[in-house]
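TASK: fixed-backbone design
INPUT:
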């Protein structure tokens, strides 16, 4: 398979998992390459996502690595054969690669869990809300760039608004609901949007109220995307250098615990809806 210039996060993840299986088996890259009749350079390219890998090779490597996790092997084989070119491809080379990676991860996710403290989660954002956020960036984007980013964010909502929605669970701090990023009318519309979407059976919204006096989880913001098996989950966080995709087992375990702790401190969904209703009435 020809080498890729810019592998996606999903392609990189496949290679990472193959490397982890090899390392767990105690094999060097040269030893693994010999099992496929190739060289260490090509093996390195496969494990970095630069080169594609066939389903046959995934299964051969897994067998030689003595991996008995059939669900994981099947999931990796499916990743190797996936040729999905979704709506996000039209933005490739136009917006930063992380935008396409996030949309692709959303598309393949089995569930999504968010924790939001300062801003309303992206999947809930109205066009006016998203536009205000992107227009506030420093350095400022030209109007055409803002338009593209808003358009992309609105299309990403398909994973909860579309014909095949995924289970979505979010915990939002009251601060994110109260901050008026685009004025009173836009804020009211934003709260209404959250209430409307929260009525869907696959959506659960919980709120951390200001009245909670022992909440120390303000730094818990995250997007947790479910893989076809738990090992293939991904946590996404904004970092100073850009978007961070977290996938090591230890880190995933940490963020699963973190989400559980934040969720336990939040209001029940019905109480959360009541609070959001009250905030909307105040505007």
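OUTPUT:
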């Amino acid at each position: 398979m020809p080498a890729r210039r810019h592998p996606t996060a999903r392609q990189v993840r496949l290679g990472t998992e193959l490397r982890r299986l090899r390392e767990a088996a105690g094999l060097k890259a040269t030893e693994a390459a010999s099992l496929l009749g190739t060289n260490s350079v090509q093996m390195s390219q496969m494990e970095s996502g630069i080169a594609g890998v066939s389903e046959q090779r995934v299964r051969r490597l897994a067998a030689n690595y003595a991996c008995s996790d059939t669900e994981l092997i099947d999931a990796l084989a499916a990743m190797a054969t996936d040729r999905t070119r979704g709506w996000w491809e039209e933005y490739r080379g136009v917006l930063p690669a992380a935008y396409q990676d996030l949309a692709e991860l959303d598309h393949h996710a089995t569930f999504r869990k968010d924790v939001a403290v300062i801003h309303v989660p992206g999947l809930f954002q109205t066009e006016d809300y998203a536009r205000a956020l992107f227009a506030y960036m420093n350095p400022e984007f030209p109007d055409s760039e803002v338009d593209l980013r808003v358009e992309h964010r609105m299309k990403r909502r398909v994973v909860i608004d579309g014909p095949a929605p995924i289970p979505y669970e979010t915990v939002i701090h009251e601060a994110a609901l109260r901050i008026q990023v685009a004025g009173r009318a836009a804020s009211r519309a934003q709260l209404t949007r959250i209430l409307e979407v929260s009525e869907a059976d696959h959506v659960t919204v919980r709120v951390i109220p200001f009245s909670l006096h022992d909440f120390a989880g303000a730094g818990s913001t995250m997007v947790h995307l479910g893989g076809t098996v738990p090992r293939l989950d991904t946590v996404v966080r904004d970092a100073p250098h850009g978007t961070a995709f977290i996938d090591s087992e230890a880190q995933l375990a940490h963020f699963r615990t973190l989400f559980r702790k934040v969720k336990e401190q939040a209001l029940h969904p019905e109480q959360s809806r009541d609070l959001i209703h009250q905030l909307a009435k105040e505007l």
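COMMENT: Residues 9-25 form the longest helix (17 residues).
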